[in-house]
Design brief:
It is built from four helices and three strands; from the N terminus they run αβααβαβ. It is α/β, with parallel strands linked by helices and 138 residues long. It has a single domain, classed as TIM Barrel, CATH 3.20.20. The longest helix has 23 residues, at 13-35.
Length: 138
């Protein structure tokens, strides 16, 4: 069911995304050479490790000007275990009433997700620290 799965993908799409960005970068650079401009290429990228694993983080960070890492919506009304917590907490909250064990790796044992853990995961996957922009809720 493609509609219910968010953004369905096949195994080839991880590399295809990198190839798409590389082609866009090449075309933008060619146009920039012609009109003496630099055209920005950015990508909004996910926080969850299960989603990050579908991106070639190191190669993508070398292609784009920066990645807008979507470090928000960590908690919300969809949770059934109680009150919602921070939308975009900087560090893990040991008192989070709704730990998510499915997210326990590479995040702490209680499954709590945080901006610090997301950024550390991107760095571990080869992202350039200069290419990470964190997106926060407003």
């Amino acid at each position: 069911d493609e509609v219910g799965n968010g953004n369905p993908h096949g195994p080839q799409d991880t590399h295809n995304f990198t190839l798409l960005l590389q082609e866009l970068r090449s075309q933008l650079d060619a146009q920039g050479s012609a009109d003496r401009k630099h055209y920005l290429l950015t990508a909004d990228t996910p926080s969850g490790p299960e989603k990050v694993s579908h991106i070639e983080v190191g190669p993508v960070s070398r292609i784009v000007d920066w990645m807008n890492v979507m470090t928000f919506d960590f908690n919300g009304p969809w949770e059934t275990t109680g009150p919602t917590e921070s939308q975009s907490n900087l560090f893990p909250d040991p008192f989070d009433p709704a730990p998510r064990p499915t997210r326990s790796k590479p995040y702490p044992d209680n499954g709590e997700i945080s901006v610090a853990e997301v950024v550390a995961n991107y760095l571990a996957h080869g992202a350039s620290p200069r290419k990470i922009a964190i997106s926060i809720p407003f």
